[in-house]
Specification:
Number of domains: 2
Shape: globular
Distance between the termini: 87 Å
Number of helices: 11
Structural class: alpha/beta
Radius of gyration: 27 Å
Length: 384
């Protein structure tokens, strides 16, 4: 006879929520490893409790566990890769079908709703709305999707780490790509996914890449290789608005607005606005001609890493350390006193500071020999 979740908790079928909860707490105290209990039994008890909370009477069978797992595991790395490639291939085919389905609705200006994906890795709901927008509900986990219109997303986006072939790629030929309440819902883009919006804006939450060590393929002990899954978001003719961006990410847009940037992030834009206090760890800013970088946080110098690099479109590179040692954070007071001397491009914002492409291009590498008045001369910026 198959043991039910009620049997595991030692209670009768039909017990109240309180009785189920009390039984779990009693057994958890008895079997928790911290109290000398058996860890496997504790896991079994906890799963039974979680199942009963959603009305599930019996534990999952071994077959159900495999079907409901996000990725297959096996005895060897080769087995894992092979099985996961099969899953990735399934999702890839589903997304191609979804792409064709959405395109057909666009051609006839029709509305419809349909589920796509895999029961193993999770299904997502696509809805083509009357205004031409494509609504996606659920987590996008693998495959490519191109759409000629805006996309509204309720879910996170990731990419399979086991293969490049089925990497997540979302391409909008027109319109905006937006998460719905991304900060509140904690939506994110991660693990090497790519988003390209040809003519529109991107409004998302956190963006993370992935960088990890793998053992040497030749089997040398103590030798590792670094592999990365760089997450890429591009809106060459629009804005990218994001929260925290970290760990191997590339952003490319006309305007980039972010909170914090950490650990190997590349930003290429004409206008870049930082609302947080961190720009750290081997990050690179590629500033386009005529552009500017604005730091809104009051005196956020402490969070700006000296190893970050600012690259200008003409090829010149400036270490953020060089900008910091010119005491850029003190420019706001100088700006108020000498505003008419700076020109229309030298603007200060709030309690933070702004540096323009021209300022950085004219930044002197050496201190002036003679003391001069005004920050324009002392910090090596040209008034031209």
């Amino acid at each position: 006879m198959v043991e039910s979740n009620y049997d595991i908790l030692g209670i009768v079928e039909g017990s109240t929520e309180k009785e189920i909860r009390d039984a779990f707490r009693r057994l958890a105290l008895q079997y928790h490893a911290d109290r000398g209990g058996e860890n496997e039994q504790f896991i079994k008890i906890k799963q039974a409790y979680e199942d009963l909370k959603i009305g599930k009477k019996y534990p999952e069978t071994n077959i159900e566990k495999i079907k409901n797992s996000r990725v297959y595991s096996g005895d060897s790395e080769a087995d894992v890769r092979k099985k996961n490639q099969i899953l990735g291939q399934q999702l890839y085919k589903e997304m191609k079908t979804a792409e064709e389905w959405a395109a057909a609705l666009n051609r006839t200006n029709s509305t419809a709703t349909r589920l796509f994906g895999s029961k193993t890795l999770g299904e997502i709901e696509l809805e083509r709305k009357a205004n031409g927008a494509l609504s996606i509900k659920g987590n996008f986990m693998a495959g490519s999707l191109s759409y000629d219109g805006p996309i509204i997303m309720q879910g996170s986006i990731t990419s399979p780490s086991w293969t490049e072939e089925f990497r997540t790629n979302i391409h909008l030929t027109k319109g905006d790509f937006k998460f719905i309440n991304p900060i509140e819902n904690k939506y994110k883009i991660e693990n090497g996914a790519k988003i390209l919006v040809d003519n529109g804006d991107v409004v998302v939450g956190n963006i993370f890449g992935r960088k990890f060590r793998v053992e040497d393929p030749e089997g040398r002990v103590g030798v590792f290789q670094i592999q990365e899954h760089r997450t890429s978001v591009s809106a060459p003719n629009g804005k990218i608005i994001a929260e925290n961006v970290a760990n191997t990410v590339s952003l490319d847009a006309d305007t980039v607005i972010v909170l914090n940037v950490e650990d190997d992030v590349r930003i290429s834009a004409r206008e870049i606005l930082f609302y947080g206090g961190k720009l750290t760890y081997d990050s690179v800013i590629e500033l386009k001609e005529g552009g500017s970088i604005r730091f809104f946080e009051k005196f956020s110098i402490q969070g700006l890493s000296g190893d970050a690099i600012i690259k200008l479109e003409n090829g010149k590179q400036i270490r953020l350390f060089d900008v910091k040692t010119k005491k850029i954070k003190d420019l706001s007071d100088e700006f108020v006193a000498n505003k008419e001397s700076y020109g229309k491009d030298a603007t200060m914002v709030g309690n933070g500071f702004t540096v323009t492409y021209d300022m950085l291009n004219n930044l002197s590498k050496k201190s002036p020999k003679k003391q001069k008045t005004g920050w324009v001369s002392r910090f090596g910026f040209s008034r031209d």
